[in-house]
Write a structure and sequence with these properties.
Layout (H helix, E strand, L loop, with lengths): L2 H37 L10 H12 L15 H13 L3 H26 L2 H16 L17 H23 L2 H15 L3 H21 L4 H27 L4 H8 L1 H5 L3 H5 L1 H7 L4 H31 L3 H23 L11 H17 L5 H20 L13 H4 L1 H23 L3 H26 L4 E4 L5 E3 L7 H15 L6 E4 L3 H7 L12 H17 L4 E5 L17 H10 E8 L8 E7 L2
Parallel strand pairs: 3-4
Antiparallel strand pairs: 1-2, 4-6, 5-6
């Protein structure tokens, strides 16, 4: 090769990959920035759930102690972590939101590293793009909070982040076998234990099975097994012990342990596992219908595979380029027609229903492949990360097993399985068909077109809803935009109620919002004198006596009656369909001073402010 050509080839091999990496990063940052812009300040719901995610860390930042001064069902990590953000950067929704956007970048980084190890650059980039466009910032239903910027539960998003980091470190351990990595994995999973139960029950068995497989592959001695298990257990214990030590300074040790582990004990409570809402989430409210829908949509997925399979077969038999090009054009038209057939009478938001079946079958396939690898350790180690990710993805779907979807809880629970599906479409299936028929490129282009279509469709769904959120409910560091007043009166009523709170209440006066409204406490910067802030049907049924005793012992100066239809949990309205004793106490001891709208009436949103008279 002439020197000039050799030099050009060297420059090409050195700089083209770097340019490609820069382009990929620009694409991903572009998607992330676009999604952040269209959703800016519209991530939080002003009525449901998210107020707690602000109120509790604010109270902890003021010096209160979780479980003793403030009730909490989930683990302590996320609330104390968020309170630390408030302590360092100041109390403010936007401070927390901006930090959560940084966490989205961190999740995206680890997703990229994991899927780059399991596939190739194009697939890893598309996986991250899919996460950013479909899961990180969206709103698909009337309630906000189902995004990673202002999640209804930070325990869920934090637990997911730590789970992916632990999977990545586990992949490093497979290659390097450094013992310190087992300690780090243990610490991460121990921290997940202190977030939300469904994430812990997904990552613990996934990594646990992976570690057992490593011991079997390496034919580890008893000493080695004990050493590996000890490092993991020590790491696992560290975050739990640290929190136990902290809480032991504020309450008896056994009480601290009970409170930290309360959510795991509550799983067996009938009221927590059989309520109407949970049955809908699981898909057990209409099991036959949901199973039928799962099979129907799985059948539509099968049509895509059949089209790709016969396309590969047909193209491999054609000899002339002109004939191939004509056939490719017809195949693209067939794919467009097939997509129309697939989405006809089926919402895009229901297309996640077969995810449990897909991840389960994938896990079985990987396990069989590992067993049939003729005891070749290198091959088995290469398959092991797939198995761990498949187990994690499948187990995380248990809570929505017959009603899997990317909206609502699916923004976390269906996310890993969806990303696995993207990898199957863009990498595994083209490679499989390429090995059979000799050419994977056209199938990969079709798969990429399908993935991009799904992303654009979901971005459009979110954008249509976000365009309707133009009303500034609160401003400044706590800015929240909600529905235009012509669509829903909740923003206007809520803002007027906040203005009345400022006029009526003294700075040190307290109030409790019924049945839900911790956001008002936070935005008004006024305390709830009791540990309790959730007066929906299930908590009232389980802990109603504690609530009532605490309210009598520490009566608030004011109460708020906030419109909240709780029929998703059972009875519809606080005081009218449940919590009769609490409501009677409010009527006897408090007098309404101001009312915006008609709260708890079913005739529209409203907030009433009542002052204690005795």
């Amino acid at each position: 090769m002439p020197p000039i050509l050799s030099m050009l080839e060297n420059l090409r091999s050195r700089f083209i990959p770097k340019i490609s990496d820069v382009v990929n990063m620009i694409i991903l940052f572009g998607i992330g920035i676009y999604m952040a812009c269209i959703s800016w300040q519209k991530w939080a719901d002003i009525t449901i759930d998210f107020g707690v995610e602000l109120y509790v860390p604010w109270q902890l930042a003021k010096g209160k102690v979780l479980y003793r001064d403030i009730w909490q069902l989930y683990g302590p990590f996320s609330q104390y972590f968020n309170s630390l953000i408030f302590r360092i950067f100041g109390v403010g929704l936007m401070n927390l939101a901006l930090f959560n956007i940084i966490l989205i970048v961190v999740i995206a980084y680890f997703l990229y590293r994991i899927f780059l190890e399991l596939s190739d650059t194009l697939t890893a980039v598309c996986v991250v793009a899919f996460f950013l466009s479909v899961f990180a910032f969206p709103q698909y239903v009337g309630c906000a909070n189902y995004n990673y910027v202002c999640p209804y539960s930070h325990e869920l998003t934090h637990g997911t982040l730590f789970s992916f980091v632990s999977i990545y470190i586990f992949m490093r351990f497979i290659k390097t076998r450094k013992p310190i990595l087992l300690f780090l994995i243990g610490m991460l999973i121990g921290t997940v234990l202190l977030t939300k139960a469904e994430v812990f029950f997904a990552i613990f068995p996934a990594v646990g099975i992976g570690m057992i497989c490593i011991m079997i592959i390496n034919k580890a001695s008893i000493y080695k097994i004990i050493k590996m298990a000890s490092l993991f257990i020590i790491g696992f214990s560290v975050p739990v012990i640290l929190f136990l030590i902290y809480f032991s300074y504020h309450m008896p040790f056994l009480s601290a342990l009970t409170e930290i582990m309360q959510q795991y004990r509550m799983i067996s409570e009938k009221m927590m596992t059989s309520q109407k809402f949970i049955m809908w989430v699981l898909g057990l409210d209409r099991p036959a219908f949901n199973l039928k829908m799962l099979l129907i949509i799985a059948g539509k997925y099968l049509w895509i595979f059949i089209l790709f399979f016969f396309s590969s077969f047909l193209l491999s038999r054609l000899k002339t380029q002109n004939l191939k090009k004509m056939t490719m054009g017809l195949i693209i038209l067939a794919l467009a027609a097939l997509l129309h057939f697939i989405t006809k009478n089926t919402s895009w938001l229901d297309m996640g229903r077969p995810l449990p079946v897909i991840t389960f079958l994938l896990g079985i396939y990987i396990f069989i492949a590992m067993l049939s690898s003729n005891n070749i350790p290198q091959k088995v180690r290469g398959l092991l990360p797939f198995l761990v990710l498949a187990i994690f993805s499948f187990t995380l779907l248990f809570k929505i097993i017959l009603n899997a979807h990317v909206y609502h809880y699916g923004f976390v629970l269906a996310m890993p399985a969806s990303l696995l599906l993207i990898m199957l479409l863009l990498y595994q299936m083209p490679n499989f068909l390429g090995r059979l028929f000799g050419d994977r490129n056209f199938i990969r282009i079709m798969s990429l077109s399908l993935v991009v279509t799904i992303m654009i469709t979901h971005i459009g769904l979110s954008k249509r809803l976000y365009n309707l959120k133009t009303f500034m409910f609160s401003s400044g560091i706590d800015a929240i935009k909600t529905w235009d007043a012509r669509i829903s009166p909740q923003g206007l009523c809520g803002r007027l109620a906040l203005e009345r709170i400022e006029k009526i209440m003294g700075k040190n006066e307290t109030f409790v919002a019924f049945p839900e409204g911790a956001l008002y406490n936070y935005l008004a910067r006024r305390d709830n004198p009791t540990p309790y802030y959730d007066f929906k049907p299930v908590p009232v049924e389980i802990w109603g006596n504690l609530y009532f005793a605490s309210l009598k012992k520490f009566p608030p100066d004011y109460v708020l009656l906030v419109e909240r239809d709780t029929s998703d949990c059972g009875p519809r309205y606080f005081g009218h369909d449940y919590a009769f004793e609490l409501y009677s106490w409010i009527k006897d001891d408090y007098k309404i001073l101001s009312q915006e709208g008609s709260p708890l009436s079913g005739s529209g949103y409203g907030v009433a402010i009542a002052k204690r008279i005795r």
